[in-house]
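#structure-requests
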Amino acid sequence: MEIMEFRWKKCSCFLGIVMVFLILSDTADAGKKNYNWKLVDKANKDLSICIKNRDKKTNLPSHNRLAGVENEYSLCVEKIIIKVADEFYAPDAFGEGGIKARIKEMERPYRDIYGSIVMKAGACGPPECGSMWEPYSASSWGIQLEKMLSEMIYHLKSIRQHK
C-alpha cells in the first residue's frame, strides 16, 4: 500500500511539474506573436488619407452633403481601428463581439448627446440651433474615433519602441 501511495504522489508531483511547464510555455509564446508592426505606421498614413478626403469634400459648397461626408470619415477611421485591433489585441480584449461591437454600442448615444448639445438647447432658436447643426454630431463622432485610433497608434508605437 505504501508503495502505491508513494508512486501516486510521485506521479502527481510529476504531473504538477508538467502542468506548470505547459502554462509557462504557453504564456511565454503569447508574447512572441510576430506582429505586423508596419501596420501601425500604415494606420497613421491611412488616417491622414481619411482626413484629407474629408477635408476636400467639406470644402464643397453643399451643406446638405456635410453630414454624409462626416459619416464617410467616421467609417474610414473605424475600418482602420478594426484592422489595428485585429492585429494587436486578443479577440476578447474588448469583450464579446470585439471592438466593432463596442464602437456600435457607443456610436448612437454619443451622436445623440452631441446632437442635443447643438440642436436642442432650451434657449435656442434659428440660426443658433436646429438641423443645420446636424453635421456637428456626425463630426464629433469622427473626431472621437480619430482620438481612439491615435491613442492606439501612440500606445503601440511605445510598445514597439521597447521591444
